[in-house]
Amino acid sequence: MTAQATNSDASQERVGLLRVLGPVHVWALGVGIVLVGEFMGWNFSVGKGGAFGALIACWVIGLLYTCVAMIDSEVTSTVAAAGGQYAQAKHIMGPLMAFNVGLYLVMAYTMLEAADALIVGDLLAILAGQSGYDALDPRPFVVLIIALLALLNYRGVFMTLSLNFVITAAAFVSILILFIGVKPWQPGAILQHQGLLTELPYGWIGVIASFQFGIWYYLGIEGTCQAAEEVRSPSRSLPLGTMTGIMTLLIAATLTWYVCSGLLPWQYLGQATVPLYDASRMTGSLMLQIFLFVGTMFAATASANGCINDASRAWFSMGRDRYMPQWFGAVHPVYRTPYRSILILIPIAVSFAFTGLLDQVITFSILSGLLGYTFMPINMILFRRKWPLGTIRRGYVHPFHPLPAIVLMALCVTTFFATYLGFGTQLLAMMIFYIVASLWFVLHRYKFVRRADQFTMNWPKPLGY
C-alpha cells in the first residue's frame, strides 16, 4: 500500500458521522418512513381478504412489528453503529449474513423510496386532473422529489430529520383530523360501517393472503437502527424512539382502517392508490380534502426522506467494511454525511419509480424487509446465548425472551406463504437475486474484507469461544 493510500484511509477514519440526534429524531426517522403506509399500500390487503381480513392483518402484523421493535431496541442500543441490523449481523452472525442483511436493507428502503416518489407524482397528476388541466406526466416530479431530498440528506442529518419530525407530525395530525371529522360518535351520520362491512369474501385463506400488504402499515420502523452511530445517547434514544414509534403506528393504523372501511366499498378500497385522500373526498368536506391531500404529500415525502437516510447508511457501512467498494465508505469533510452512498442510490430509486408499477415495487420492498425480519429471531437468540445478561452493558433488555423471537419467526413464515399466494414469481425472483449476490460476495468480494477491523464493540469473548 502506498503512503498516499495510507494517508487517505487515515483521513477517512478521522472524519466520522456526527452524534447530534435525540429520541425525537429517532421517532421522526422510524415513523416518518412508515406513516405513508397509512396513506397508501395497506389497502391492497383489503383486496386480498376484505375489510375484516385487513383489520386482522393490521393487528397480527402489528404484533410482528412489536416483536421487531423490542428485539431491535435491545440489540441496537448495545451495537451502536451505522448500518443497524447489518452491524448486528456482522458482530453476531458473521460476514455472509451481514452482507445479505445489508443488501436487504438497501433494497427495501430504496424501493420504498421509489414507491413514495410514485405517490407524490400520482397525487400531483390527480390534483391537475381535478383542477381541469390536461393529464400531467408524473415522472418529472418523481425525479425532482428524489433529487431534492437527496440534496437535503447530503447537507446534514440533523436538518434532514428535524424536517422529518415536522412533516411526519403534521401527517399524523391529518389522520386525527379526519377521524374527528367523520364523527365516529354518530354511527351512520357519515360512516357507513353497517352497510359496507361484509363477511370474509375469500375465507381465511384471503385473510392470510392479506398479511403481505398488512406489512405496509409498519414497514420501515426498524430503520431507527440506522441512526445508531449518530444519536447522542444510543442506550436511551434508540429504545425510546423505537418503542414510541411503534405505538404511534399502531394507533394510526387502526384509525386509518376504521375511517376508510366506513366510507369506501371494500372492492374499491382494495385497489385505490390513495385511500385516505379518497375517504376524505367521500365526506364532501373541502377542508378535510385539503388536510388529507397535504397529509398524504407530507407522509410520502417524509418516507422518501427517511429511506434515503437509511439506505445510504447501510450502503456506507458496507463500503467502510469493504463488503462493497471502499469508495462508498467516505464521509463528507464538511457536512459529515455518507455523501457518495447518498448519490449512488439516486438513479436506482428513479429507475424503480419509472416502472410505474406501484404494487410490484411495494412487493419487492416488502420481500426484502421480510427477509431481514426473518434474520432477527436467529440473531436475537444467538446474541443472548453468546453474551448472556450481565456479561455486557445493554441499553434496553426486552422482556419474555425468547417468546418475541419465536412469535416473530412464526409470523414471518406465515407472511412468506401469504406472499407466495399472490406474488409467487416475484418471491422466486427475489430469492434468486439474493442467492446470486451471495455467490458474488463469497467468490469475489470476501477477499477484500478485513475481519479484524469490523469488531468495534469492546465486548468480552462470546460464551463458549
From TrEMBL:
It is a multi-pass membrane protein. Gene3D superfamilies: Amino acid/polyamine transporter I. The chain crosses the membrane at residues 24-44, 51-71, 91-110, 139-154, 161-182, 202-219, 240-266, 286-308, 342-358, 364-383, 403-421, 427-443. Keywords: Cell membrane, Membrane, Transmembrane, Transmembrane helix. GO terms for cellular component: plasma membrane. Pfam families: AA_permease_2. Its main location: membrane. The keyword Transmembrane applies. It comes from the Bacteria. GO terms for molecular function: transmembrane transporter activity. This is Amino acid/polyamine/organocation transporter, APC superfamily. The keyword Membrane applies. It is found in: Cell membrane. Signal peptide: none annotated.
